[in-house]
């Protein structure tokens, strides 16, 4: 079947709904990832302004070639890889159909990345990106873009698998999308640091069943150390939902919850506790979204939220808190206004409609919004 995304018309074999990781018959194409690709194009537009020297882009797992074609139509010098010969043929056909010069190669991404350097590397594998992270950070010059679809290990729902893949302890909390993103960022930042490289997220989001992040690289070891300084732990009370962030690589979990005295405190980490995006860059990405994009409205809404979201390392779920306090949930704008009126900072969070951030404690939120 034929599909259009942005200015690209291309053929796909398989346009199923992508709630799964999408392994199956035929060359992979997931229509629900159009938002991911629209934002990628907007990021590439904004990044060109930020780093005019950057010109080469590696779509390391190309499948139908849609992302590679969209990047090439923006003027990037694109190489696209896949190990599946059917994907390589389809991606070549799709590039030809659109008159785009994409170098499509049947090759393992790790092998390719290890013997060539690219300005921007994009990892969009099935499941975890970790098997490709070392080669990407060792060989990208400017930017590494990463999708992870293994949300259960990332957010602590599959505990052992998360520990194995990400070398971190994830906990299954009511802020699971953010837990997953911060576990992913922690693992990526630590991987880059092994190459004396700082990898700082300049745009990140969690949408539907995946986390996506864009990490800008800096080859100074001192900057890599500065990134490591933004790792730490979150101590979470399963009784009263209080959470405390602790910066540093050694955790000191409290015996009991300082807020309620309960003994069901769990610790997650090491997590990335720093900002998940650069506000100015996100504003530039927002400018890069155009009306020809199929997911323009959702992309703009999500980027607007991302730009104004507080930097607190965890978000609250308003409905969960109100249920805990046996109250009905008021309109979110009213709820946040009450917090601000009580002197706290408060913002929505992009993770979902009932997600918000504040510097108030659980007790303070309860009192300020009563
Ligand atoms: C999730 S799909 C990529 C989707 C594509 N980027 C898009 O936006 O539609 C993952 C692709 O990675 C390919 N793949 C798996 N292992 C690979 C490897 N080691 N090197 C390169 N490609 C690989 C698979 O054949 C599959 O086509």
Descriptive report:
With 370 residues, the protein is α/β, with parallel strands linked by helices. The protein has two domains: 2-308, Vaccinia Virus protein VP39 (Rossmann fold), CATH 3.40.50; 316-368, Phenylalanyl-tRNA Synthetase, Chain B, domain 1 (2-Layer Sandwich). 38% of the residues lie in helices and 23% in strands. It has 14 helices and 15 strands. The protein has helices at residues 34-50, 66-72, 85-97, 109-114, 130-139, 151-155, 159-166, 176-193, 221-228, 279-288, 296-308, 318-324, 332-341, 362-368; strands at 2-5, 8-11, 56-59, 77-82, 103-106, 118-123, 140-148, 198-207, 210-218, 231-237, 243-247, 265-272, 316-317, 346-348, 355-358. Strands 5-4-3-6-7-9-8 form a seven-stranded mixed β-sheet, with helices on both faces. The chain is globular and about 65 Å long. It binds S-adenosylmethionine. The site of S-adenosylmethionine has 21 residues, from helix 2 and strand 4. Belongs to the class I-like SAM-binding methyltransferase superfamily. Trm1 family. This is tRNA (guanine(26)-N(2))-dimethyltransferase. Pfam families: TRM.
């Amino acid at each position: 079947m034929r599909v259009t995304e942005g200015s690209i018309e291309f053929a796909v074999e398989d346009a199923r709904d992508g709630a799964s990781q999408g392994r199956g018959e035929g060359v992979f194409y997931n229509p629900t990832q159009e938002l991911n690709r629209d934002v990628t194009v907007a990021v590439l537009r904004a990044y060109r302004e930020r780093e005019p020297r950057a010109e080469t882009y590696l779509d390391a797992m190309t499948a139908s070639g849609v992302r590679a074609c969209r990047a090439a139509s923006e003027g990037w010098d694109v190489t696209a890889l896949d190990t599946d010969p059917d994907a390589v043929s389809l991606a070549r056909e799709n590039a030809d159909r659109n008159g785009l010069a994409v170098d499509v190669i049947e090759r393992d991404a790790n092998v390719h990345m290890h013997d060539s350097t690219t300005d921007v590397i994009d990892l969009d594998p099935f499941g975890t990106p970790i098997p490709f992270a070392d080669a990407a950070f060792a060989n990208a010059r400017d930017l590494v873009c990463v999708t992870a679809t293994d949300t259960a290990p990332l957010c602590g729902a599959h505990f052992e698998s998360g520990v194995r893949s990400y070398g971190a302890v994830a906990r299954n909390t009511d802020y699971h999308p953010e837990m997953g993103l911060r576990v992913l960022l922690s693992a990526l930042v630590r991987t880059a640091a092994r190459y004396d490289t700082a990898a700082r997220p300049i745009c990140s989001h969690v949408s539907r069943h995946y986390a996506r992040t864009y990490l800008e690289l800096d080859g100074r070891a001192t900057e890599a150390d500065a990134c490591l300084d933004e790792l730490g732990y979150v101590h979470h009370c399963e009784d009263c939902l209080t959470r405390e962030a602790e910066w540093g690589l050694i955790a000191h979990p409290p015996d009991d919850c300082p807020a309620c005295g309960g003994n069901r405190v769990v610790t997650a980490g090491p997590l990335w506790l720093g900002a998940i995006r650069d506000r100015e860059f996100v504003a530039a990405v927002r400018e890069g979204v155009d009306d020809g994009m199929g997911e323009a409205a959702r992309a703009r809404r999500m980027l607007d939220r991302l730009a104004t979201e507080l930097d607190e390392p965890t978000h609250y779920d308003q409905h969960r808190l109100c249920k805990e306090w046996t109250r009905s949930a008021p309109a979110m704008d009213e709820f946040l206004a009450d917090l601000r009126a009580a002197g706290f900072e408060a913002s929505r969070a992009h993770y979902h409609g009932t997600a918000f951030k504040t510097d108030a404690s659980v007790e303070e939120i309860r009192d300020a919004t009563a």
